[in-house]
User: What shape does this take?
Amino acid sequence: MKFIKKSGEPASFQQWKSQENEDWEPTWDDLRSPEKPQLHDSLLREQGYICCYCQRRIFLEDSHIEHLKPRTHYPELAIDYNNLLVSCQGEREEPPPLPIHCGHYKKDWYDPKLLVSPLEENCERYFTYTELGEIRPTSDPKLQEAAETTIEKLGLNIDKLRAMRRGAIEAITEGLDELEELEKQKLIAGFTELKDNGEYTEFCTALAYILRQF
Assistant: This one.
């Protein structure tokens, strides 16, 4: 998981909400084109085109707008920009393609004490990774329960995601022992920063973690 720094909401979304009057109150179900795809695109750019939970590479067609706090339980936050993220697996894919994970797997579950939020600045400290692509809870006993529950409730350790992370890790660790320390540090920095095209590297925090172990 990678920290997502929220920016200002897109102007079109803000203007749509500002049309509220005595006869009309904006709701999530009312949100249509062009405002909804523009909102979706804004959220994607904000996240560097990676899933808010698993960090897979995502684009408009294979992702959906995710309510961190589910709108079924928090209807007052349904159109609150600070509650909106983008998760992998598209909203038009009904039912979602198997295996289900991340936002579709989470569904309406939310526990503020047990869900590690990507909006928490230090969310990365809850997790560790192995060279086989497994995501594990940190050894810090104060953080373990939330980390374990988040991994379970989002399906972050399913075979599909483990295999994808393992492939990404293998691609960067081959010949790593031959690099100088400064070169390794540059690699780590490259995975933690946005690239020129506005994207983060897929599975960036897992790759950075593994590199630091070397």
User: Anything to note?
Assistant: The longest helix spans residues 159-173.
